[in-house]
Amino acid sequence: MSKQTYRVCFCFRRRFKLAISEAPPEIKDLFDQYSENDIMTVDHLHRFLTEVQKEEKATKEEAQATIDHCLRELKHLNIFHRKVLNLEAFFKYLFGDINPPILPSIGVHHDMSAPLSHYFIYTGHNSYLTGNQLSSDCSDVPIIQALHRGVRVIELDIWPNSTKDDVDVLHGGTLTTPVELIKCLKSIKEHAFVASEYPVVITLEDHLTPDLQAKVAQLVTQTFGDVLFSPGSECLKDFPSPESLKKRIIISTKPPQEYLEAKDAVKSENDPKSGKTQVDEEAWGQEVPDLKGANVVDDKDELDEEDSNGEEDNDKSPQHLAPEYKRLIAIHAGKPKGGLVECLKVDPDKVRRLSLSEQQLEKASETYGKEIVRFTQRNILRVYPKGIRVDSSNYNPMIGWSHGAQMVAFNMQGYGRSLWVMQGMFRANGGCGYVKKPDFLLKTGPHNEVFDPKYKLPVKTTLKVKVYMGEGWYYDFKHTHFDAYSPPDFYARVGIAGVAADSVMKKTKTLEDDWIPAWDEEFEFPLTVPELAVLRIEVHEYDMSEKDDFGGQTCLPVSELRKGIRAVPLHSRKGDKYKSVKLLMHFEFV
């Protein structure tokens, strides 16, 4: 593996030396500093863990376990019987799976006893679609995949089937092929708690007659049984906690009569003619939209998604409603009459869910930012993609999170930078799908004042990130994947997704013809709201004649970053972890 040959033409070949993965100069210096005679003992490693890795609670037993793990991985070393590390083994530890940027063993560590409204919740949009919003198949497969990734809110659009005697799930008014509701319900029951034991919310977009609503009630009750959380027909005065709802299924939709009142409001926002679709401009997706100048492109979007698709039966009236269906609804949704001011009023006697499109939220935040924050302290706000995203692309989730929106609904079946940020945020708190909102979004001041998202805050901390090197592409990709005639020319992009003042992306130099790039570059990121910041990391391969190739990505919640030198695994565009590709990085807060 010392040389690699690329065929340029029939009679000409290029040969390149293959670099060997070796410790960068700074790592060698640290090894010299924390070792004697090229040997790192348990005491040396323990001191390194506490002083450099900032693991103040690290024990000597843990240091010994780390040494034992490294030596098992490197059985060829003749120091195995001595229970110490040389430089190769030390580098193996730093660049190994045993040294991740977020500690998996920490698990769920946020307070889970607060009301549901105090958490960001991993939320899907049109969870049954396998592809685009207009013509893809409907299936339970993307629902299963979402649940396995930790998604806790599943959206189902329910319609009468072709013979009007059963219920299908499909995207109404499109060419999407339906899937039976019962199939989706059974899959949710089977897979709901594979990734997390915390509650799953099913949001229903209801387009049914009362007799079919009764059928849905029967299907839901029979499928979920005692797992279903059903407090009755009355609205909840306060939301229960995730802890109290472990392994429970919750139904959220509008009380049926509210569909009637909204029936004739507007024509569907899902009309593909209503605007230009957001097509990915690059192979790995558009850059995350900037919050500093979020423009409202299309202001037709005046009602809930549930409203805009409504095709309810004119004969459906409140006295004909199925009471058993209404009793299923634990989280009541809907919009009061009277516009946004009325929608955002907080009722001390009941809690509810409000849905706004991304455009509606952008527009509302210009005038009613503090009112939205106050509303989300007790109630749930769901934000969903605008209807012209027929390609199942997504938007910047920070606009919702910075205003306290719990359910920032995303199309989970695709990929792209916005979805990577979403996945990064929910790597926090053990990946359980619930992340406690920062205190500043939950507190009120002595004069009942709340956080103002427009207020310019001072820098609270600065994150220093050093990118030493990367490796693994040689093993996970064909040698001509990036360039047919030479080894790849990699560069890294590192930045922050967060509030407008914190969001930025920076780039390393491009290193030519190297499968193991050693950039050795450092970046600083001043953070005004570190609680909402997500560290973005991407690697690309420079291509002079075409678009740069994708080489991996990950996003990590800044609040859970481990200080020190860490091995950062990279993922594919779809969010799947590569077997070998990773970066060696250093994180420090100053």
From TrEMBL:
Keyword annotations: Cell membrane, Hydrolase, Lipid degradation, Lipid metabolism, Membrane, Transducer
Membrane topology: Peripheral membrane protein
Reaction(s) this enzyme catalyzes, per UniProt: a 1,2-diacyl-sn-glycero-3-phospho-(1D-myo-inositol-4,5-bisphosphate) + H2O = 1D-myo-inositol 1,4,5-trisphosphate + a 1,2-diacyl-sn-glycerol + H(+)
Domain C2: from-to ranges: 443-572
Any one Gene Ontology molecular-function term assigned to this protein's record: phosphatidylinositol-4,5-bisphosphate phospholipase C activity
Cofactor(s) the record lists: Ca(2+)
Hydrolase found in the keyword field: yes
Ranges for domain PI-PLC Y-box: 355-441
GO cellular component, one term: plasma membrane
Annotated compartments: Cell membrane
Ranges of biased composition (kind: Acidic residues): 299-314
Chain intervals for the UniProt region annotation (Disordered): 260-320
Compositional bias segments (type: Basic and acidic residues): 260-274
Taxonomic superkingdom: Eukaryota
UniProt-listed InterPro entries: C2_dom, C2_domain_sf, EF-hand-dom_pair, PI-PLC_fam, PLC-like_Pdiesterase_TIM-brl, PLC_EF-hand-like, PLipase_C_PInositol-sp_X_dom, PLipase_C_Pinositol-sp_Y
Gene3D superfamilies: C2 domain, EF-hand, Phosphatidylinositol (PI) phosphodiesterase
Biological process according to GO: lipid catabolic process; phosphatidylinositol-mediated signaling; release of sequestered calcium ion into cytosol; response to stress
Known EC number: 3.1.4.11
Protein name: Phosphoinositide phospholipase C
Organism name: Prunus avium (Cherry)
Lineage per the UniProt record: Eukaryota, Viridiplantae, Streptophyta, Embryophyta, Tracheophyta
